[in-house]
Amino acid sequence: MAVSRNLLTLAACTSLLVGIGAPVHAVDEPNPLDVIQSVAPEVLAAAADDPSAPAGGDDAVVVDAGDATAMLPDDPTDGVTLGADDGDTMSIGLPNASEADAAEAEAAGVVSYDNGDGSTTVPVVRDDASVQILTVIDGPEAPREYVYPLELPDGAALHLDEASGFVSILSSDGEFLGGVAPAWAKDAMGADVATHYEVVGTTLTQVVEHSAGVAYPVVADPWLGMALVQRVVWTSSMKTLQVYSTDFARVATNLARWAGWAEVQIKTPGTRENTTSMQDQYLCHFDAVRLRKPDKPSWNLDLGRPNVSWAKMLLSSCNP
Q1: Domains in the chain: boundaries
Q2: How far apart are CA 249 and CA 155, in angstroms?
Q3: Mean of the per-residue pLDDT values of the chain
Q4: How far separated are the first and last CA of the chain, in Å rounded?
Q5: Measured over all CA atoms, what is the biggest interatomic distance in the chain, rounded to whole angstroms?
Q6: DSSP single-letter state for residue 249
Q7: Which of 180, 285, 313, 320 could anchor a disulfide with 299, C-beta 3.0 to 4.6 Å?
Q8: Residue 89 has pLDDT above 90, yes or no
């Protein structure tokens, strides 16, 4: 899948979606971006900031993060497409897509689809080509179930971890291909609204238990991703490998740890990093540092570190 690394600008999307300038919303409807900004500003802050819309194409937004891609459709019935550099792709259908309007440009990396049922779907593409598919729920008449049918690689399946709420997408061999972060929903006052996922076959449903007692609008989302490593950089001395994980990797299940190490190897020229010690340092960072220091920019793997037990490595915070 050949796409540009540039994510759409409002002007580019305007040329694709004929006649659209600034998004137009009815006076009595809340602007979905205003709602999201008030409830979950961190989501919009993470949107990819250099989007593109291929001339003459069917996609409103395309992101190429090097080893992963994301495409938002102009026509909501086409669904969102995620791809990995190994050729794996998956498509995620959007709620009530057959009744929804075509994409409206909202901001760089963000479009919206008015579902015509009291809800608006607002996908936000991040720099790591993961996608947060937000739903803005205007009032109690809106649906409580939002259905996302997935088209997965042959043999792949959805696995819901009831304890964490994370949904893993696993190959027939149990390899981690991608996943969906735990469900969340908040009302206009920032209060949590009860929500959960249900999985039947390859269909994911988010149930949002909103009612007249909550402050509308309500915002909810599934966050889907595939890539776990954005890039790797050897220090000038070539003694330390700096691994920059994706935002999505930092919320993923531990089932993703080995897939992350595989990405490190794919992205690292040569084989210097392919030692038991370097592998264990990465796994230690994924298991511990990822949770203890979620904002740590890079996980540093030291080439000269001797091979020790995982327990000793953990006690030393994964590095000497």
Answers
A1: 10-225, 229-315
A2: 23
A3: 84
A4: 42
A5: 65
A6: G
A7: 285
A8: no
